[in-house]
Each structure stands twice: as structure tokens, then as C-alpha cells.
Amino acid sequence: MKNKNYFGRGITSIEGTGWKFNKNVSNQFDKHVRQSIPHYDDIQKYICSLSEWFLKDGSIVYDLGCSTGETAKNLFKKFSKIDFKYYGYDLSNEMIKIAKKKNKKNLKNCIFNLGDINKLKFKKNSRVFYSILTFPFLNSIQRIQLYKKIFKSLDHGGAMIFVDKIRSKNSCYEDIFNQAYFDFKIDNKLTHAQVLNKSKSIRNAMQLFEENEIENFLKLAGFKKIEPFFRWFNFIGFIAIK
Questions:
Q1: Which residues lie closer than 8 Å to 178 by C-beta, 6 or more apart?
Q2: CB-based contact 29:43 (threshold 8 Å)
Q3: Which of 104, 120, 199, 226 is the most exposed place for a label (fewest CB within 10 A)?
Q4: Between β-strands 4-6 and 12-14, what pairing exists: parallel, antiparallel or unpaired?
């Protein structure tokens, strides 16, 4: 039997299977993500704030890697008077179930589906694409191809708003920032073993790039207006407008 890696209460992955959450993760995910992602609630607020410049009646928006539907919940709460259509996609059926339950009051305009973001077909004239820490699990070819599809789908003036994890330009800072990140997790009540297990479990899953490399990928896709809106050590938020 393959060993399990434990990296938070109710959160595990199986060695040898690559990165994926166990099927019961959804019940603990919202707590775990706040222990693992710096300024997670602030990021959600920033995304909603930026959306004020783009959302309007009739808008179509996509959330790539929607997990438990937290972004959808916040968007529909803030923009309750705007009639927009939200499509959330995730690879986990358990996540989708929780997302639907969390957003049950808005399921008429809030649609969650299982889906590989590399294989999706997007509607034309979409207004906004959101993604929080999903792109680090894509290689450079997948990123560029997806960015091109998103750019083609967006209407003029539409935006992609996403949070990424990056590599430092200098190896010295890479070490410093990674250690600071581990300290953040320990301060948020994760054990040393859980932090190490999480790091081990994603070794063959994440492909990180430098900030300028991501900007170059976006430019190759057609985006010209690119700006960071958030930065915490090696975590960064971008907005790219068509």
C-alpha cells in the first residue's frame, strides 16, 4: 500500500500519484487554504475590488480552478445587483459539491462543472477570467496555449485576474523567501512534518517561473496591458487587460 502524506487536518495526498487532494479534502480546504496562502482573504477582497471595473449586466466570467467556490461567493455577494454569468471549473468532484452548496442561492447564474482547464472551450466576448494558484501546475506550453485561448475569448477591455507563485531572479532570495513561507505556515499552526510533506508532494507537479517570464508568456498570448496588483515574497497577483 502506498504511503499517505499528511499536511493538514484531513488533508492528504498519496505518494506516487502526483499532486492531488484526497476525496475528503473539501471539508477542511477552506481552513487549510488560509493556513497555506498568505493574505488569502485580502486576495479575495482585491479580486472583488478589481472586478468593479469590468463586471456589468450580461457579463460572462470564468473561474479556473474554483475549488470550493469562495471567489464565486464573494463576487455574488458584492455584485448582487449585477446580472452576470459565472462558470467555475475544478478537477475535484468533492470541491464542486462544496462549491454548489456554498453558492446554492445563486446557482441560476453560478455554474460549477468538472473540467480540465487545458481542454475547455470558452464563450466569445467573456468579460473576466479568474484563477488563484492554478497556473503554477501548468508547464510553459500549457500556460501559453491557455493564455491564448483566454485572450481570444475576452471581449475588448476584458481582463484576466490571477494569483501565481513565482521563482526569484536570484537564488539567494529564493532560499530566503521559501524559508519565510515555511515560517508563515508554522505560525499558522501547521506542523513541521505537514509543511515538509506538502513540499514533498508537489515536487513533480508545480512548475514555477520568474515574474518576467510570466509577463512574456502573457505578451505572447496577445496581452499588452499587464500589471502586478499584489506581492508577498514569491506570491504575486497579476491583472492583464485585452
A1: 234
A2: no
A3: 104
A4: antiparallel
pLDDT average, residue stretch 1-11: 45
CATH topology for 4-241? Answer: Rossmann fold (3.40.50)
Mode of pairing for the β-strands spanning 154-167 and 235-241:
antiparallel
d(CA 201, CA 183): 19
* Cell 455554474, residue located: 111
Q: Which residues pair with 162 in a beta bridge?
A: 131, 238
String of DSSP letters for 140-161: HHHHHHHHHHHHHHEEEEEEEE
Tens of pLDDT, residues 177-187: 999 999 999 99
> In the block, which residue shows the cell 515538509?
196
What is the mean predicted confidence (pLDDT) over 118-131? 97
* Contact in structure between 22 and 49 (CB atoms under 8 Å): no
Mark 169-206 as b/e (b = at least 16 C-beta within 10 Å): eeeeebeebeeebbebbeeeebeeebbebbbebbeeee
CA–CA distance, 147 with 36 (Å, rounded to integer): 26
- pLDDT reading at 19 higher than 70: no
DSSP at 168: -
The three-point CA angle 205-14-23 to 5° equals: 95
69 CB contacts (<8 Å, ≥6 apart)?
88, 98, 99, 100, 102, 103, 110, 112
Residue 88: strand, helix, or coil? strand
